[in-house]
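Q: Hi! First time doing this. I have a protein sequence and I read that you can turn it into a structure. Is that right? Here it is:
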Amino acid sequence: MVVPALLFIIVFSYVPMYGVLMAFQDYNIFKGFLASPWVGFKHFEMFFHAPEFWNVMRNTIVISLLKLLIGFPAPIILALMLNEIRSRVFKRTIQTISYLPHFLSWVIVSGFVVSLLSTDNGSLNIVLMKLNLIEAPINFLSLPEYFWTILVTTGVWKEIGFASIVYLAAIAGVNPQLYEAAAMDGASRIRQIFSITIPSIMPVIIVFMILAIGNLLNAGFDDILLLGANPVLRDVGDVIDTYVYRVGIQNSRYSYATGVGLFKALISVGLLAAANYAARKSGNSLW
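A: Yes, that's right. Below is the predicted 3D structure, encoded as C-alpha cells:
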C-alpha cells in the first residue's frame, strides 16, 4: 500500500532534483544540461552581493517568524477552546465554519480580502467611518505598514481551523480518568488544561514545531504574490520565493533563480536538523 506513495515521491520529488545542476551552470535552454558551461558557485555569490539580498532575507525571516509566532499557537488555542464546549451541535458548527476556508484557493481568499479592504464600499472602511475612527477610506493594500498584519491575519484565518483538527484528535486520545482524578482533587478546568491536556498533546506539538521550524524560510508564495501584487509593497513583501519567481520565470534567469532556491533549501534542511536535535532531548523527534 505504500508503493504508490513512494512512486509519487520518487517521480515528482526526487527525479526533478537533477534540475539543481542549473545552479552551478550558465544554463542555456537550447544546449541542455550536458552542454551548458559550468560556473561553480557564481550564482550564489551573485545573490549574496545582489542589492536585493538583505531586503529579501529580512522580509522572508520577519514574515516567517510572524507566521510561526502567531500562526503556530493559534490552532492549539482553538482546539483547547473547542474541547471545552459541551454542546456537540455548537462545537461541530464552529469546527465546520473554521476549517472551510482551508479548502478555498488563495485566489479566492485574496479576492475576499481585496473586497473587504477596498476603498470603494469595502466593509472595513465602511465600519471604521461609521464609528468615526477615520474620516476617509484607507487603501490598506497600498500602504506597506499594514501589509505584514494583513498577510499574517489572513493566513491564520485560512488555516487555523484545519490545523486544529490534529490537535483535537490528540486531545480526544487523552485518558478521561486523568480529568476525573483531577476534578476530585479540586482542579479547575483551566488547571486541568495546563496540567493534563497540554502535557498530554506535547509530543504532537513538538513534532509540528519541528516541521514549522524546518519551513521557516517558506514565508509563502501564493498569498504574498496575490496580496502583495502592488509594486509599492515590494520593499516589505518580496521574499525568497517571489524573488525566485520574478528573476527566474519573468526574467528567464534560470540558473540564478535555481541557485537562490537551492540556498533556501539548504538553510531549511539545516534548521530542520537543528530543531530535531533540540527536540530529541525531550524524547520527541522525527528521527
